[in-house]
Write a structure and sequence with these properties.
Length: about 475
């Protein structure tokens, strides 16, 4: 059976392309739809359906643009109530793609409308399931997201629905089916996803904690809800965009792709109140940047950290990028609903320097330099990694302020004493450093290689004990 997984690592997302006999279907497409159109064109196929497994929280789907450009019909599962035209499938309804059949199986739990799609080949053999966020490799979808949009949908209620969906709809299916999930490791839509992006259902029945056959409903709920972290703040906003609709990506790019010379850029920044977002790598940013800009590097988990650190999804944004990557940055912003880019610095940061505009910088040190400094003075240490990373191992006496909590805990950083921040490899700590600098702090240093470098190159004392919360 012709099924292609189209995986996007920066947001750990998998879309699927299914084609047979000149007809194609796209499952859970990203916002930029041209790659799917091009893929169908290569097969001389018409995109007949756009199947959505649920209203996504971690990205804005491309279903509306795909429908507008191809005429494909949007399909959601039972109970979905989008604010636009779509086919709402009934549980057990069949669709045809050429000689293939696709069966909608309503599997509520992650969300109420969550639906798994069973793929059946031209010989009526069941091939696999496109499971959305119902079943991942090694995990299942978290049930606590919908309550941020609809208060009555508590995590306990959805967890119990998911228990029954898995046992009554998924587990009775054949062991040789291939599981095609919507996400892999790194996504915030689960807590224990594998790095593998497909598996057989039989192996998942043997290895996935949530599919243990002797697990009671209460045990399932307890295990599923234990260890869930607070979902990113942009998740409910993305759900609403997917449910209500959004501006076409073409218009978003047209609006934002406005080259500005340094004088124009500076003027617009001053009069618009726009956020200056510098997407260069951390080392280049540290050496020189436009005052009050923040750094979130494009070559990392860019969209996720934009969503975590920029609270207003409608925030006007001015971009500083490596020349030629402006549109890429706009597309990746739009994946999580940040559609209000209003221009970019033509020629990148180099043009700002050549115009002799004001420049700021940040101090970065190596792990060995940190070790030498700590022999001469006692610098407070702040670890901006996730709590789980910190609990595993961290520098003795360091305090954990996860990056996604930074804005809420700015008062935790001393204003009258130099301090040091670090993450795992220097990407997240530079995001933190740029925000601290923007908020008026400059009495700190950032470890360029992060904890990974510190552990390899120094003998600094480490521990896996959590610092007392009183230190915060």
């Amino acid at each position: 059976m012709k099924v292609e997984q189209i995986y996007t690592g920066c947001i750990a997302h998998a879309a699927y392309y299914v084609e047979n006999n000149g007809e194609a279907a796209i499952f859970d497409p990203l916002r930029e739809v041209q790659p799917y159109i091009d893929r169908a064109k290569k097969d001389n196929a018409k995109i007949k359906y756009v199947f959505e497994t649920h209203f996504h929280a971690d990205f804005v789907s491309g279903h509306l643009d795909l429908k507008a450009k191809t005429g494909a019909q949007i399909v959601f599962g039972p109970t979905a109530k989008p604010n636009y035209e779509a086919l709402i499938a009934s549980d057990g309804q069949f669709f045809t793609i050429g000689n293939y059949k696709i069966k909608a199986i309503h599997t509520p739990g992650h969300t109420m409308e969550s639906t798994t799609y069973l793929l059946i080949d031209e010989n009526d053999k069941e091939h696999g399931i496109i499971s959305g966020d119902t079943l991942f490799i090694g995990d299942v979808g978290r049930p606590d997201l919908a309550q941020h949009v609809i208060a009555d949908l508590t995590q306990d209620k959805l967890a119990r629905l998911l228990y029954h969906s898995l046992r009554e709809k998924i587990m009775p299916l054949s062991d040789d089916l291939i599981v095609y999930p919507n996400h892999g490791a790194g996504s915030a839509c689960g807590k224990n996803m594998s790095k593998e992006t497909t598996d057989t259902l039989g192996n998942q029945k043997r290895t996935n904690y949530a599919l243990r056959p002797n697990m009671t409903e209460d045990e399932f709920v307890k295990e599923l809800l234990t260890g869930l972290t607070t979902p990113p703040g942009y998740f409910p906003k993305n759900v609403l965009l997917n449910l209500k609709g959004y501006e076409s990506l073409d218009k978003v790019i047209e609006k934002g792709k406005k080259p500005l010379n340094p004088n124009e850029f500076e003027t617009l920044a001053n009069v618009s109140g726009a956020l200056i977002l510098d997407t260069r790598n951390a080392n280049d940013f540290a050496k020189g940047f436009i005052p009050n800009s923040i750094n979130i590097g494009i070559d990392g988990s860019f969209a996720m950290w934009v969503g975590e650190m920029i609270s207003d999804i409608n925030q006007a944004i001015l971009l500083v990028t490596e020349p030629g990557r402006e549109e890429e940055c706009m597309i990746r912003l739009s994946r999580v609903g940040y559609d209000n880019t209003i221009g970019y610095l033509e020629g990148g940061f180099e043009s700002w320097k050549q115009a002799e505009k004001e420049i700021d910088s940040l101090k970065r040190i190596t792990g060995e330099q940190l070790e030498a400094l700590l022999k001469t003075a006692d610098f407070p240490l702040f670890d901006v990694r996730k709590k789980s990373e910190f609990d595993s191992e961290h520098l003795l006496k360091s305090v954990n302020i996860p990056l996604n909590q930074l804005n809420a805990k700015l008062d935790s950083f001393p204003k009258d004493k130099s301090f040091v921040i670090y993450c795992a490899g220097g990407y997240r700590s530079m995001i933190a450093a740029s925000i601290l600098k923007q908020r008026g702090l400059d009495n700190f240093m950032d470890v360029s290689g992060g904890y990974n470098e510190i552990a390899k190159t120094t003998q600094l004392p480490k521990t896996n004990y959590v610092c007392p919360s009183t230190l915060l």
